[in-house]
Design brief:
six-stranded parallel β-sheet; five-stranded parallel β-sheet; 2 domains; Rossmann fold; 12% strand; 349 residues
């Protein structure tokens, strides 16, 4: 049966950066099928990430793909919601733990002819993830034919709503920070999160000595002395972030990992003059919000993971596999300082 396709469903159980990189696929499917897709995911933060996004209708959340179905009310609710929407094209963007996903989709009433699995389409293989998703979005499930693939920007895009901007402005004003330009420093990553900011994290290719981060803090201040430098992260990282800010002896440096829900982080990125980050999810959201960005890589490479800006805002990178380096420790801090000083910043007239 081939007929007019209803609203597509995109399945992706990814981290923050993965879900940001998915947005060009969502834009392409919106144009091909005429309706903004629904997204099936797991991260509790995903609705905040996509709030107000023109290419997302709603987010359906699971707690875990691997939890037994009989013990997980969130899977029951997702199945009820999916069944109520009826048959439609489903783009499955995960290659791991596919058996639990297949069982869940079968319970929701989907047949094999409704489904596209990215792992089954080698023709979608591209170096950069955005290009891979756009190639995947150009395909049709056996039962459904969308319109021919339309041209969409090959870069992620996020939306920050009025309420988010207002919350951010109130938060800054309450601290006496609203009139100053902002610079963001994001030194942590998933391994920092797991180890509560402990240094010397075994196997963490993105770890750097505190002395290097302190040198960068001073370089950021020297370049824009009137700016606030906000050290961003998560609550488990706050102790480490606070220690860095205190050790810098810069009155303009503040650790905010314990007061940074995702909507506020996005609003800060939308107004910041620039951001320096290790290769992690918030780097992708910064670029998607046109924040000038310098990314420091560990073992991964920029060819596959470099954040992209929808408007062409500057995104620079150092280190990683594409530079022949297997860890951030192989990148000298002087090189990072020079790259930061060469990054064009976004400043008000």
């Amino acid at each position: 049966m081939i007929g007019p396709a209803p609203r597509p469903l995109v399945v992706r159980f990814g981290a923050l950066g993965d879900m940001v990189l998915l947005t060009p696929l969502l834009a392409l499917l919106h144009r091909r099928y005429g309706l903004a897709p629904d997204v099936l995911s797991a991260g509790a933060w995903t609705p905040s990430l996509y709030a107000g996004h023109p290419d997302v209708r709603c987010v359906l959340l699971l707690g875990s793909r691997r939890r037994p179905y009989w013990s997980d009310p969130r899977q029951w609710r997702a199945v009820v919601q999916l069944r109520a929407a009826g048959s439609r094209p489903v783009y499955v963007c995960d290659e791991l733990a596919t058996a639990p996903v297949a069982r869940l989709l079968a319970r929701a009433g989907f047949e094999r002819a409704d489904l596209l699995w990215v792992g089954e389409h080698g023709e979608c293989a591209r170096t950069h993830w955005v290009d891979r998703w756009l190639a995947f979005g150009a395909l049709d499930a056996p039962r459904w034919h969308g319109a021919p693939a339309a041209a969409v920007p090959a870069a992620p895009q996020l939306a920050v709503g009025t309420a988010q901007h207002e919350d951010c402005a109130r938060w800054l004003t309450a601290r006496g920070w609203n009139a100053r330009p902002l610079l963001l420093l994001h030194p942590g990553n998933k391994r920092t999160l797991k180890h509560g900011g402990a240094r010397g994290r075994l196997g963490d290719s993105k770890a750097w000595p505190d002395a290097h981060w302190l040198a960068l803090l001073h370089a950021m201040h020297a370049r824009l002395p009137q700016a606030l430098i906000l050290l961003t992260g998560t609550p488990p990282e706050q102790h480490w972030l606070h220690r860095l800010a205190r050790a810098s002896r810069l009155a303009c440096a503040h650790a905010i990992g314990d007061d940074l829900p995702l909507p506020r982080l996005l609003a800060l990125q939308a107004r910041a003059a620039g951001m320096l980050s290790v290769d992690t999810g918030p780097a992708h959201s910064a670029a998607a919000l046109d924040c000038p960005l310098l990314v420091l890589y560990g073992a991964a490479g920029a060819a596959a993971w470099l954040p992209r800006s929808p408007s062409g805002a500057p995104v620079r990178w150092l280190g990683g596999a594409d530079a022949g380096r297997a860890r951030l420790l192989d990148t000298p801090v002087d090189e990072a300082i020079a790259a930061w000083n060469a990054l064009p910043l976004r400043l008000p007239a």
